[in-house]
Amino acid sequence: MIKQIAIACFLLLGTVSIQAQSACTRTQLKTAADSYVAAQGAVDIARMALTVDAKFFENMAEVGKEKGLWNTSLPIALSRSFLDTTRCMTFTEVIVTEGGHPYVLGTRLSVTAGKITEINSLVTDKGDWLFNANAYLKYSSAEDWRFLSANEKTDAPDLIDAANRYLDLFSDKFIDAPWGIPCARLEGGAYSNRNNDPHATCNVGVPDSVLYIVNRSYVVDEQLGVVNVFCRFGNSSTGMPDSHTFRLINGEYRLIHTISVNLNPDTPSPQAADDGSMIRPPAQQ
């Protein structure tokens, strides 16, 4: 009996030790995210503390270290990072408006013991869904992304549930989602509250068709009331790579950002104008 108790205690301590080793601090994650931004701006990947076997993904396809956009120096106009100390992951929005090639990037880092084990970057530019980097910068830079007070925060499970409710609306129009007021949706560059209406809502509708959003994974930053979802629209292997970022205050949507990659250049996506309005392809006008 004593031997069995000893073994049980050993296993329990081993589990606690493993869990402790897997935990991350905001400082560690911020350092990792900042190093990615610095490396992207300076085209110096050595600025990132990468593990020797780090993996690299661009638009949800694995690529070689030397192939991704992180090998291109970008004049970054704005970046904003979210930190998940439970999953040891970060998500960073990067907006580039100068240098001749505008981009909006959504990049995740996986971190272990302060080192980056995986980079997963969504790269959007001209031709991607509702793209306009100028509009994305204009509206994103004016939004409220401050740290929340204790009574404004939403627990991680409820943040994930709110994100799923929104995404489930694309397949079930009767889902009850936590709509907040005011709320604004920034979709590629198109903005739902260009007039700064204090009564605006993000409940502006989804397509009538049934569309399944699959392969969902999450980065949760409770301090900022944010959950980021990487997912695919319609198909688990070839569906449109997408990032949805939700900011909740008092349990309700207040800001929603989307970055969506058009994998089919033969099918033009609508674009956004510099004022955040939608420009439809000629065939749809």
What does this 3D model show about the protein?
By secondary structure, this protein is α+β, with helices and mostly antiparallel strands. The chain has 2 domains: 26-125, Nuclear Transport Factor 2, Chain: A (Roll), CATH 3.10.450.50; 146-284, Nuclear Transport Factor 2, Chain: A (Roll), CATH 3.10.450. Helices cover 21% and strands 33% of the residues. The strands form 3 sheets. The chain has a 6-stranded mixed β-sheet, with helices on both faces. A 6-stranded mixed β-sheet has the order 8-7-12-11-10-9, sandwiched between helices. The termini are far apart. Mean pLDDT is 91; it is low at 1-21.
Summarize this structure as a short list of keywords or feature phrases.
alpha+beta, Nuclear Transport Factor 2, Chain: A, six-stranded mixed sheet, 21% helix, disordered N terminus
Q: What is the compact description of this entry?
A:
The chain contains 4 helices and 14 strands.
Query: Could you name the CATH topology of the largest domain?
Result: Nuclear Transport Factor 2, Chain: A
DSSP strand tally: 14
Number of helices: 4
Order of helices and strands: HHEEEEEEHHEEEEEEEE
**Backbone shape:** globular
- Contiguous low-pLDDT stretches (5 residues minimum) are 1-21
- Average pLDDT across residues? 91
Number of domains: 2
Largest sheet, described in full?
Answer: 6 strands, mixed
State the strand order across the main sheet.
Answer: 2-1-6-5-4-3
CATH class of the largest domain: Alpha Beta
- Class derived from helix and strand content: alpha+beta
Share of β-strand residues: 25-35%
Report the radius of gyration as a whole number of Å: 20 Å
Distance between the termini: 78 Å
CATH architecture of the largest domain: Roll
The share of residues in helices is 10-25%
